[in-house]
DNA sequence: CAAGAAATATAGCAATGGCTATAAATCAAC
DNA sequence: GTTGATTTATAGCCATTGCTATATTTCTTG
């Protein structure tokens, strides 16, 4: 045990909070990718890439709209708000940094990609800055 | 984009799976800690340390019993099965390694503890091995 | 050992994130 | 421009993980 015992509940609360944001981040990044590649993000494409059924994607998109990250008209494509696009950029950059960090400490490329998907959502700004510093100073 | 585009849905599915196991791991580790410290794990203590209400802890313990990781009789303490104790040991070791790795690449101790709580559940055996190798070879 | 305090369990609610089945809207092609 | 195919939305289900309120059991103490 460490000297931080008193903060244990807060640690878990923080991890839970991060998890609740993770899905939003994944969807926003994916929508950003689709728009960049295809000019628009269709529900069917989003569902396929996320590996979920189409109604699941529709429901997630509703939440994105509620949170002000995306806009969509019924039976039309999905688009990101400025806030959503900013978030997508940050998520993408963080993902790259996490993969690079993992590779830098010896994790095989493919494994790094797989693990980064889960890890990235729990990397705070401070840790991300440390990762960048480490990568630069090698 | 990388050369792994075809596996994107599997990546997310894997991250989701890891998330569903994370809570079990946290509870098992915490119960192990409590037994080591106090000789037994009471529901009230588990709830307090996990930062959740007592019925939430009770419900989680039911799941642990269902999964064969813990045993408990009503109104009595909670104990780990052999499988649960093994899991607790592995989780604890992995947690330490993740914190050490983070510190090794420049993350401040306190931040490392916070972030590790979320990160550790997404660290595969292969990545963990790479972390250990990196730490040893410094 | 009886009563009150403390701990645990249960009931029931909400949000999230899955799913299938089906309805409704759009698109394509004749 | 209709019709059939495709796409999206909706309805309704399940499990999980939280919560509060309340019942029940155990513990403690006079």
TrEMBL record, chains A, B:
The keyword Manganese applies. Residues 1-81 form the HTH dtxR-type domain. It is found in: Cytoplasm. It comes from the Bacteria. The keyword Amino-acid biosynthesis does not apply. Its main location: cytoplasm. GO terms for cellular component: cytoplasm. Gene3D superfamilies: Iron dependent repressor, metal binding and dimerisation domain (1.10.60.10), Winged helix-like DNA-binding domain superfamily/Winged helix DNA-binding domain (1.10.10.10). InterPro entries: DtxR_MntR_Metal-Reg, Fe_dep_repressor, Fe_dep_repressor_sf, HTH_DTXR, Iron_dep_repressor, WH-like_DNA-bd_sf, WH_DNA-bd_sf. Keywords: Activator, Cytoplasm, DNA-binding, Manganese, Repressor, Transcription, Transcription regulation. One of its GO terms (molecular function) is transition metal ion binding. PANTHER family: IRON (METAL) DEPENDENT REPRESSOR, DTXR FAMILY, TRANSCRIPTIONAL REGULATOR MNTR. Belongs to the DtxR/MntR family. In the presence of manganese, represses expression of mntH and mntS. Up-regulates expression of mntP. Homodimer. NCBIfam families: PRK11050.1. This is Transcriptional regulator MntR.
């Amino acid at each position: 045990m460490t000297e931080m015992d008193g903060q244990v509940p807060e640690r878990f609360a923080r991890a839970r909070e991060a998890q609740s944001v993770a899905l939003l981040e994944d969807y926003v990044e994916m929508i950003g990718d689709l728009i960049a590649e295809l000019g628009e993000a269709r529900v069917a494409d989003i569902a396929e890439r996320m590996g979920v059924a189409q109604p699941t994607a529709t429901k997630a998109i509703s939440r994105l709209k509620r949170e002000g990250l995306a806009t969509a008209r019924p039976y039309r494509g999905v688009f990101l708000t400025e806030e959503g696009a900013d978030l997508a950029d940050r998520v993408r950059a963080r993902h790259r940094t996490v993969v690079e960090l993992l590779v830098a400490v010896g994790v095989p490329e493919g494994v790094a990609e797989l693990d980064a998907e889960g890890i990235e959502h729990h990397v705070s700004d401070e840790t991300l800055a440390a990762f960048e510093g480490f990568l630069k100073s090698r």
